[in-house]
Amino acid sequence: MDTNRRIFIQSTVAAGAAASLPLVGQEKARDPKADYSGPNLIIIRFGGGARRLESIDKKHTHAPFLAHELSRRGVLFNSMEIDHFDSGRAANGKPVDTSHGQGTIYIMTGSYKKLSTVGSGALDERFVPSTPTLFEYFRSKYKVDEHQALIINSEDRKQEEFLTYSNHVRFGIDDKCQILSLYRFKRYLFSKLLDEGRREGREITAKERRQIQQQYDRLAAIDRRGKLTENPRLMEFWARWRHHYGDSGLKNPRGDRLLTELALRSMRELQPRMMMVNYTDCDYVHWGIRSHYFNALGIMDQGIRQIVAAAEADEFYRDNTLFVVVPDCGRDNDLLADIPFQHHFNTRSAHRIFALFFGKGVPAGDVFDRGCDQIQIAGTVGRLMGFDTDEAESRVLEEAIE
Ligand SMILES: [Zn+2]
C-alpha cells in the first residue's frame, strides 16, 4: 500500500466516514441490477484547456461546428465556471486546481473534493477520484457490461488511466469503466508478442523477448490497484485494431484524431452506453507554439462532427443519445504574460468554461448566461439517465432537462 492511500484510509476512518476500510473489490450487499433502457451518454471532454473565446464565441471560434451548428441543437451554458460556487475551496483557502485530470474528475464526479493519488515517482498527478464517478453510479444500478462503459484516453496522459473507479466505500472496482488508449493497445500487443514468440514474420530472439517483457511489465505496473485482468471484449477489439493497423504504431492516427478513431470504432464494435472522449491536443500549447492550440480546436471540432454523424447513422444511438461537450479547464487570456495560454495560475480565464447539452431529453435552442458550475454536470446527467448521484453537487442544471 502506498503512502497516499494509507493516509486516505486513515483520514477516512478518523473522520468516522467508514465503518470498514474501502477494500478494493469487497463484497457489497446490493439490490439486483435493473435492465437499462434509457439514453446512451457521450461526453466529449473539449479538453487540454480550451477557452470560451475560441470555442463558443461565434465570431472568434476555431470550432465552427460546435459554435454555429451544435449549439443550436441543445442548451448552451456559456458562463459555466470551475469553482463558481466557491464550494471547492480547501481548508487552506486555496481555490480548486484548473487542470486536466482534475477537471476531468470534477466532470465525472460532480465534486471538488480533494483527490487521492496512487503511485509516486515519474508519473505525478495520478489522481484517483474520492467520490463515485458517473460510470460507477450507472453500473451499480443497471446491468451494463464493462465494455459498454468506456473512457477514450490520449496516449500522452497515462496519469488519466486511473479514473476507472473511485476510492469511495460504497463503490469501486466492481462498477469500474474500461479505457481505450494506445497505452492499453501496447499492453495487449506486448503480451501477444510474448505468447506468439514471433514479430514481423520471424522468431524473436531471447534478447528481444527480455526487452518486450520489460516493456510489458512497465506498462502493467502503472496501475497498481488490484490484480490486472483483461476484459475479453476489449481483447477482441484490440485484435481487430492490430489486424487493421499492424504492430508498428506508425499507421494509426495520432493525437486527438486517434481518440476520434477509437470512439468511432468502439461505437460500431462495442456499443458503449456511456462513453467519455478525453480530447487533449490543445495542451501542446504549453510548448509555446500558439498554432498548436488553434489547430487542436479544429481537430476536436472535426472529431465531434464525426462522432455526432456516426450516432445519427446508427440505430443504437440515433434519437436515444445524450451528448455533453465541456472543457476540463480554460486558459489564461493575458497576452502580455511571458508564457501565454497557461492554466495553472488560477487566473479567471482558466476557471471560465462552458457546457453544451444536446440530444435525448434536452430542449433545443437555448442559451443561458447565468453563472453555473462544472460540478453540476454529473447530477444533471444522472437525472437525464435515471440514476442517483448522491455524493455529487445536488443543484442540477434544470434548464438542460426537457
Ligand atoms: Zn496543461
Brief summary:
The protein is α/β, with parallel strands linked by helices and 402 residues long.
What string gives the helices and strands in order? HEHHEEHEEHEEHEEHHHEHEHEEEH
Distance from N terminus to C terminus (CA atoms, Å) equals 47 Å
List the strand order in the largest sheet: 7-6-10-1-11-12-2-13
Count of distinct strands? 14
- Name the average pLDDT: 87
Q: What is the architecture at the second tier of CATH? A: 3-Layer(aba) Sandwich
CATH topology annotation: Alkaline Phosphatase, subunit A
Number of domains: 1
Q: Unreliable stretches, pLDDT < 50, 5 or more residues?
A: 1-27
Compute the number of helices. Answer: 12
> For the record, what CATH class applies?
Alpha Beta
Blueprint (SSEs and pairs):
Layout: H1 3-14, E1 40-45, H2 52-55, H3 64-69, E2 74-77, E3 80-81, H4 100-109, E4 116-117, E5 127-128, H5 134-141, E6 149-152, E7 178-180, H6 182-196, E8 198-199, E9 202-203, H7 206-220, H8 232-245, H9 255-269, E10 274-278, H10 290-313, E11 321-326, H11 348-351, E12 355-359, E13 366-368, E14 372-373, H12 376-385
Helix pairs in contact: 6-7, 9-10
Bound molecules: zinc ion.
The site of zinc ion (ZN) has 5 residues, from loops.
Structural key phrases:
disordered N terminus, 8-stranded mixed β-sheet, single chain, 12 helices, binds zinc ion, 402 residues
